[in-house]
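Please decode residue identities from the backbone states below.
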């Protein structure tokens, strides 16, 4: 029973833009917090951006001026618009959801997608 499905990843050159999407079941989309995490090879998974039920976003410092998290409440879809991508952004990107408020700790998220790869050269 797949509940979160990411798409939109790809291989791009530095400076390019990508939009990631995460289609969610209605139940999951009603969670209080939805977030994007990423994991680069050999590194721990890190929180990138999160958005609470009211639509208020938070970002990790390294992406705060380049990435935008948003959601479409009609389509039950979470987005991550990524601009001016850099090689350091190369990672598998995951969307996640939790019933309670937003957190940077991945262990607190209940629902996870399978991930979409972003490679920047």
């Amino acid at each position: 029973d797949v509940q979160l499905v990411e798409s939109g990843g790809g291989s791009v050159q530095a400076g390019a833009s990508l939009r990631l999407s995460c289609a969610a079941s209605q139940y999951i989309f009603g969670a209080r917090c939805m977030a994007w995490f990423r994991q680069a090879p050999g590194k721990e998974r890190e929180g990138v951006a999160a958005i609470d039920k009211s639509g208020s976003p938070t970002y990790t410092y390294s992406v705060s001026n380049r990435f935008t998290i948003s959601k479409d409440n009609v389509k039950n879809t979470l987005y991550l618009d990524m601009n001016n991508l850099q090689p350091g952004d190369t990672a598998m990107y995951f969307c996640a959801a939790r019933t309670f408020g937003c957190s940077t700790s991945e262990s607190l998220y209940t629902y996870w997608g399978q991930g979409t790869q972003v490679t920047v050269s």
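Observation: The longest strand covers residues 91-98.
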